[in-house]
Design a protein that fits this description.
The complex is a heterodimer of chains A (304) and B (444). Chain A has 304 residues and is mainly alpha-helical. Chain A has 13 helices and two strands. In chain B, α8 crosses α9 and α17 runs antiparallel to α18. Chain B has 18 helices and 13 strands. In chain B, β4 and β5 form a beta hairpin. Chain B is of the alpha/beta class and 444 residues long. Classes of the chains: A mainly alpha (304), B alpha/beta (444).
Chain lengths: 304, 444
């Protein structure tokens, strides 16, 4: 490379870096600051109600969290919620996207209607499902009673297992539009001639789905799995609204993020709460790495 | 002339260094642990000093409507202090809002609403200003003072007294051939009445155990009704006593055995929803706060002043008992106008404001003088019941560990009410979880 070329290149890079600095600064201040502060707080016994100056405890909060039964229970709930909403959500989204990708009358209307849940703010979503599943005046009980399916109203949000299922249902309703959109977009990249060739060769619809659609959707599916896993692991707003800010009944919907909130803001144990927040962050990273390891490697292999 | 080649590694290093520098600079701005809290009360309890003035900002819950511009104008005229901002929030949301304000050492808020649990929590955290006994009125009713105190320190002045009493729907009593003018005198009579009131689609009794605070309140009430207590004199948890087990068992039987408790009780998260249920005629009896009277007799209710009964809560092994939910105002430790804030506290707990709160909203007065006022007693029948209640135990046990205890109680109550765990086992578990909390917060 000539000296002039190198100089130009350096100048371009300096210019590019200068342009990037404001964005980097914002990211560092808005993400780096709270993350760094959370890490800092997590190394202290920082419980405001103790009425004493925070004491440095190193990794003490983390070792306490590992053996804390409440944390263990919340982690199990979080993983269960994530597993169902991510796997179930992505599977349903693929199915709906394939259907909406076919030519039929009213397809445009169906695609627009699909977006409705996405347009509903999370808090409104929670309130809506609370009104539907309310034990005494809920719409669902009224319908089921009217149809004669149940004799007495079901207390959907009174049993921990039922409440978790309601939460999963409400979240699935909210997340499906985005996942479907992703899948529909992914399907547009599948060459139509592949389907035509497979049809000429006599491949059944199922074989066309498993041998053409799914492999070609893999990058989209991986992205959907990663993004949805992040959202599911940090679910909060729907739980807060649906359970009146309690994460109940009997902790039945208290995920790791919700427990972090309770510990930090209700119990005022900010040091321990910060350690739980960090554990939640590590969990998100681990799950992302798992998906990358499972699906990313196959992508790279096939790309060669 | 020397030239240097810009490599990808070099750029990454540069980027990393830039990010680290920015991150370091950002972290340098964090509040260090040693400055994060201002424990204790280095400046001493607050006394009245000179004439107050300036402006104050108040964040209250939404239980009072009398605190309006007209009252603020009167307050300014009387004290010279201007209420710059008065906002209300939902009670269930306020704790976290206050905690955030305090943790950030926010100086923009002078006065907050408090009750027994928060007085203990925020007081022990060093976030509330301790008041000198000289500024506390002499004629305050004890439960009102308890609501703003913790560990022999007074952190505020009460704005109203709130004690639970029993409400019943007289038309439903008449329909069930039960004397509408007489409340059940004991728990057995209460169960019998509840059975008589229960028909298809309507239940004799309903309560609000759908959130942690509700679970605690409902357990505490039956515990006191059976002569039990939460702690011994040394704050050792003793609520798994025989009285506690029997009380919880009898309470759960309302749902699981007698089937007279509205099953939606386990989903109801606040007293106002419970009041609505009662006003709609969907349940015959509730134990509720004084505001329940106003809700039951408001326009839109199926009941009127003549058809709502109010009396003592029937006891199990004692005649009656109740729980306290009195509220008050406290001054933020970080307030820049503590004298102005103190003037508001005194104004809100004085007789004029108290009369308005009792007459217009149905809450109970904080001072003995107003409580004995005949006009007040006639204006609100709950006041008369409250006078009777004072003969019996009324407690709340607000402590710094109230939030954690509420969560323990929520799990315990859910397990017992759904029949998954016997009352004895559930209470033993709850006590074993509460003991370390007491140790932790009392620093034994």
């Amino acid at each position: 490379m000539s000296e002039t070329g190198a100089r130009n290149r350096r100048r371009d890079l300096r210019f590019a870096l200068t342009l990037a600095v404001p964005a980097v600064a914002v990211v560092v201040l808005l993400l780096g600051y709270p993350m760094g502060y959370a890490l800092y707080m997590s190394t202290y016994e920082w419980n405001d109600k103790l009425g004493q100056l925070p004491q440095f405890v190193g990794l003490g909060n983390y070792t306490a969290a590992v053996v804390d039964p409440q944390v263990q229970r919340s982690l199990v709930r979080t993983l269960w919620f994530t597993l169902v909403t991510v796997i179930g959500g992505v599977a349903l989204a693929i199915g709906i996207a394939v259907l909406l990708n076919r030519e039929f009358r009213g397809r445009t209307v169906a695609r627009v209607l699909l977006l409705v849940p996405w347009a509903v703010p999370p808090v409104v979503n929670g309130i809506m499902w609370k009104l539907i599943f309310d034990g005494s005046s809920g719409v669902l009980n009224a319908i089921l009673l009217g149809l004669g399916i149940i004799d007495t109203p079901v207390q959907w949000l009174a049993d921990p297992t039922l409440a978790m299922n309601v939460l999963i249902f409400a979240e699935m309703w909210k997340l499906l539009p985005f996942l479907c959109l992703l899948m529909i977009a992914g399907l547009q990249n599948v060459p139509a001639n592949l389907y035509r060739a497979a049809q000429i060769d006599g491949a059944s619809p199922w074989r066309r789905f498993t041998r053409i659609t799914l492999p070609n959707l893999r990058p989209t599916i991986m992205f959907a799995l990663i993004v949805q896993s992040m959202w599911s692991l940090k679910v909060f707003d729907t739980i807060f609204v649906l359970t009146g800010g309690s994460g109940g009944p009997a902790e039945g919907t208290t995920t790791i993020t919700f427990l972090t909130y309770i510990v930090s803001f209700s119990n005022l144990d900010r040091g321990y709460g910060a350690s739980l927040a960090v554990i939640g962050m590590v969990l998100v990273l681990l799950v992302t790495l798992v998906w990358l390891a499972l699906l990313g490697r196959r992508d790279r292999t096939e790309a060669r | 002339m020397t030239t240097s080649t810009i490599t990808r590694r070099g750029l990454l290093t540069l980027g990393g260094l830039a990010a680290a520098s920015l991150g370091g600079a950002a972290l340098a701005g964090c509040v260090p642990a040693q400055q994060a809290q201002n424990p204790g009360n280095a400046e001493g309890p607050l006394t009245e000093q000179g004439s107050p003035g300036g402006e104050i900002t108040i964040i209250d819950d939404n239980t009072n409507k009398v605190f309006d511009q007209a009252m603020f104008d009167e307050f300014e005229k009387a004290t010279g202090v201007k209420v710059k901002s008065y906002t209300q929030g939902n009670f269930n949301d306020l704790h976290d809002r206050y905690a955030t304000l305090f943790a950030a050492q926010d100086t923009s808020v002078d006065v907050i609403m408090t009750w027994a649990g928060w007085s203990a929590e925020f007081g022990q955290a060093g976030w509330l200003t301790e008041l000198d006994p000289s500024v506390v009125p002499d004629d305050l009713i004890q439960p009102a003072l308890d609501a703003v105190s913790w560990s022999d320190k007074v952190y505020g002045l009460p704005k109203f007294v709130s004690v639970q009493t029993m409400y019943w729907a007289k038309p439903l009593f008449t329909e069930a051939d039960v004397d509408p003018d007489k409340a059940p005198a004991n728990w057995d009579e209460f169960v019998t009445t509840a059975k008589a009131l229960t028909t298809k689609g309507r239940y004799g009794y309903a309560c609000d155990i759908g959130n942690p605070a509700g679970a605690y309140q409902n357990f505490l009430r039956v515990l006191l009704l059976n002569g039990g207590t939460m702690y011994d004199a040394d704050y050792k948890p003793v609520f798994n006593s025989e009285q506690g087990v029997e009380a919880l068992s009898k309470f759960a039987e309302l749902l699981t055995v007698h089937k007279v408790m509205d099953p939606s009780s386990v989903q109801i998260t606040n007293a106002s929803d419970l009041g609505d249920l009662f006003a709609k005629g969907q349940t015959g009896m509730v134990f509720n706060w004084p505001s329940g009277w106003a809700a039951a007799t408001a326009s839109g209710s199926k009941l009127t002043k003549d058809t709502v009964g109010n009396g003592l809560i029937p006891g199990m092994s004692v005649r009656s008992a109740s729980i306290d939910g009195s509220e008050g105002f406290a001054i933020s430790k970080f307030s820049q106008n503590k004298q102005g804030a103190l003037a508001w506290l005194k104004y809100a707990s004085a007789a004029d404001a108290q009369r308005k709160i009792v007459e217009q909203e149905g809450w109970l007065p904080t001072s003995k003088t107003v409580l004995e006022d005949k006009a007040i007693v006639e204006a609100n029948p709950v006041v008369k019941t409250y006078q009777e209640t004072t003969q019996y135990v009324t407690k709340r046990f607000g402590t710094p560990w109230s939030s954690e205890l509420d969560q323990i109680m929520a799990v315990m109550m859910s397990e017992v009410m759904t029949g998954k765990t016997p009352a004895k086992e559930a209470l033993d578990n709850a006590v074993s979880q509460t003991e370390p909390l007491v140790q932790k917060y009392l620093k034994r």
